[in-house]
Amino acid sequence: MRKSDEVIRRTVTRNANDVTAEQQTALTRIADAVPSLTGNLPSVVVHALFFASWIAINLSLFGALRAFDPYPFGLLSVIVSLEAIILTLFVLTSQNRQRTRERIRSDIEFETSMNTELKMVYLHEKIDKLTEGHYELLVNVRKLLAESGRRQN
């Protein structure tokens, strides 16, 4: 049963997304999730609000809140730099995973193409054999008709 399942798995077209999902670990899911969460418009809005609030607080625009990172905002610069480094690493990791998914997809497409080509060759051979058989049958029928025509004359 396992052997036939393996044969079916190799001969039937597989979904590249299913194959990559089977290979995912918790870390790779996180590596793919972080860029998708941070690479969208709501994330830009959140960042803009965070930076605007930080700057407003530290320029003492809100009298009730005390400045904790005065101009030129050294702590904010460090936080932004660290976030940029970490996000860059996540994006690079995600791109590597995408490259792996594309390689799996191209391998599956190649296997599918080879499988299809082999099946087409088999079908061509089958049609050729059928055609030969029909041709031989036609030749034999013509011979019989010719012999029966001679007998009647």
Description:
The chain is mainly α. The chain is 84% helix and 0% strand. Helix 3 (26-38) packs across helix 5. The relative contact order is 0.08.
Give a brief description.
This protein has 153 residues and is mostly helical. The chain has helices at 2-11, 16-23, 26-38, 41-58, 74-152. The mean pLDDT is 86.
Topology of helices and strands:
Elements: H1 2-11, H2 16-23, H3 26-38, H4 41-58, H5 74-152
Helix pairs in contact: 2-5, 3-5
Low-confidence stretches: none
Given helix and strand content, the structural type is: mainly alpha
What fraction, in percent, of the residue positions are helical? over 70%
Number of distinct beta strands: 0
Observed structural traits:
153 residues; rod-shaped; 0% strand; 5 helices; 84% helix; single chain; mainly alpha
